[in-house]
Amino acid sequence: MSQSTSGPVSSGASDAAPLPSVVVRLPDGATQTHPGHTTSMDIATGISEGLARSVVAAEVNGKVIDADRPLGEVAPELSKSADGELDLRLLTSRDSESLDVLRHSAAHVMARAVMRLYDGVSLAFGPTTEGGFYYDFDVNVPISEEDFPKIEAEMKKIIKDKEPFERFLLDRDEARKLCDDLDQDLKVEHIDTGLAEHATVSFYRQGEFVDLCRGPHIPDAGKIKAIKLMSVAGSHWKGDVKNRPLQRLYGTAFFDKKELKQYLHQLEEAKRRDHRVLGRQHGLFAINPDEVGQGLCLWLPKGARVRVTLEDFLRKELLQRGYDPVYSPHIGRVELYETSGHFPYYRDSQFAPLFGTEVGGLLDAWSNRLEDGSLDSDGEDKLMAAIEALGVELPNYKLSMSVEDKRRVLHDWQLANERYLLKPMNCPHHCHIFKAQARSYRQLPLRLFEFGTVYRHEQTGELNGMLRVRGLTQDDAHIFCTSDQVEEEFRATIELTKFVLQSVGLDDYRVQLSLRDPDSSKYVGSEDQWDAAEGALRGVLEQSGMNFNEEPGEAAFYGPKADFMVRDCIGRSWQLGTVQLDYNLPERFKLEYNGKDNQAHRPVMIHRAPFGSLERFTGMLIEHFAGAFPMWLSPEQVRVLPLSDKSLEYAVAVAKQLDEAGLKVTVDSSGGKVQAKIRNAQLDLVNYMAVVGPKEAETGQIALRDRIDGDLGSMPIAQAVARLTEEVKNRTVRQAVKVE
């Protein structure tokens, strides 16, 4: 927001007490003692002027901060020891953390440019995204893509001036007054609500532009070497459709123009590989939001062939590895998911409960409104009258009762009248399959697997073809084992996931070890259980020598997990297979097995899904292969092309032999020249074409043509069958072909 007040805005630093000295430890282990006003940039300058010119930001005890922020200022909140010792890492453009800082600063540059070009701009928020950044504005006139050149030109002027980003603090009242003076009502509201518990708030100033912001930022705008506006869309204040509509302007920025060029090329390639477009072109899947429902995938015959192949491949592998198949229903009583913790913990992303009576939904909404405080006594009177009109009485419900007691009465009625939920997870059902029979330690580990369909009420705006759906089928398995078996079983699931990914040619991946956040209350179970679970997973990954990183706060609410982050052929990252360790669900469901000591013991549970979901996995494969699946996965592996109708009978006979060999084969019986048939097969991404005419019929051969390598020449049918079935058997992944 442009600063319209006269004179400089005070940082309050002049009245502050001197900052205490700090002890800084550098990455090489060397320690230095500095006065509290020393900045990371000062330390970089002390090492070399060249390093100082390269510094973008700094990481202090794991937190990224401005390079020119006094270290004595951050020590009280970041220091892990009483003597104020700080681990310092100077960040340059080579460090992955730096790009996020650069892009956040670029968002400020974009906002500043917009305010220079348009009158009456109200600023909302400008965070970074995976591929860039955006800023939400309330602007009097709509911004369109036609305006991008003039906005970019203004941004380049700002960048050329290389003005610094200056941080300053104000107490709440001063901050509110500043935003009010600048006619930034959205910022005023955020100070009053979102920052209501903060005694002071931070701002950043760059030239005439001042913005409420927690940072961090690059030293000056000159660090931005490549910038581009990408798109504009509608949004709402704080993401709530009930709030003021805004315009969202997206952009991206890089330290190098070559990186921007590569990124734009990747985006173009991603557009050509869009699974939604390819799925429609090649008859793989369909989604009909108006008549079938949003986020509900219809697998068309070709797509279903790919899915069946994946299922058969994994089913065979699991049976060989000692897994037992199970099936569970698509719904379950709500109490099942209350026990597991999925309801109400994930209620916002689940479909509403199903009731056997029309009153059930009314009481459920009643209870929810009591919980969120949106129901007053007048509303309660109306609800009481409504249920009485429907023939239901709640004699134990009193207006004078506490909210907790009122909700208990409503819950008791729901328990007595049955509530069901579309299955959001398979694991509670598998717990009851374990519990259905007495178990001995001799039967463990018990490995159960199911291709189980579950349902999530994802937000409409988040749905994305097969990648984000409301009905998804997980290749789900749950292993129940003893504590002594945990490491061996976890290691085996990791190896299985690696095998599955390698079978489809996805060998560029890393593992993210998702741990709990000790300061969060969302996790269930004891600290000892979490320590044991996290230690077991970390130990296996370390012993395996796998490349992994730890992410605190990303664990499931019931246990830590190892997520496989896979890079596709154009460099995008996907979260696919996952392995989760769980000490909590066995406790919640009171699962037991009879141990060697003839006493009851709790099993440990491992959740495991190499595909993740068949929808997302298939959608990702469509984009990775640009629809051109490897031979073993392809829905149409061979197409027989007769030169004319005279060769049609022989073509059908050839197709029969290929089919009997287990190949997915069709015959192109259409009229026209064979060159057109070849082109159609190429466009349909068929792996091989078998061209047949009078000569081939006479000699019992086919002229084999490869989609990738072209003409392979004539050969006996048996030789072609051996070649093709060998490629399928070996699950050969030859090439991820680009879409032309």
Q: What is the helical fraction, as a range of percent? A: 25-40%
Structural class: alpha+beta
The percent range for strand residues is 15-25%
Distance between the termini: 46 Å
**Envelope shape:** globular
Strand order of the largest sheet: 15-19-20-27-24-23-21-22
Low-confidence stretches: 3-14
Radius of gyration: 31 Å
Total helices: the number is: 24
Give the mean pLDDT: 90
User: Biggest sheet, open or closed, and with what strands and sense?
Assistant: 8 strands, mixed
Number of distinct beta strands: 32
Tell me what the structure shows.
This protein is α+β, with helices and mostly antiparallel strands and 740 residues long. It contains 24 helices and 32 strands. The strands form 8 sheets. It has an 8-stranded mixed beta sheet, with helices on both faces. A 5-stranded mixed beta sheet has the order 2-1-5-3-4, sandwiched between helices. It has a 5-stranded mixed beta sheet with strand order 29-28-30-31-32, sandwiched between helices. Strand 31 and strand 32 form a beta hairpin. It is globular, with a radius of gyration of 31 Å. The two termini are 46 Å apart. Mean pLDDT is 90; it is low at 3-14.
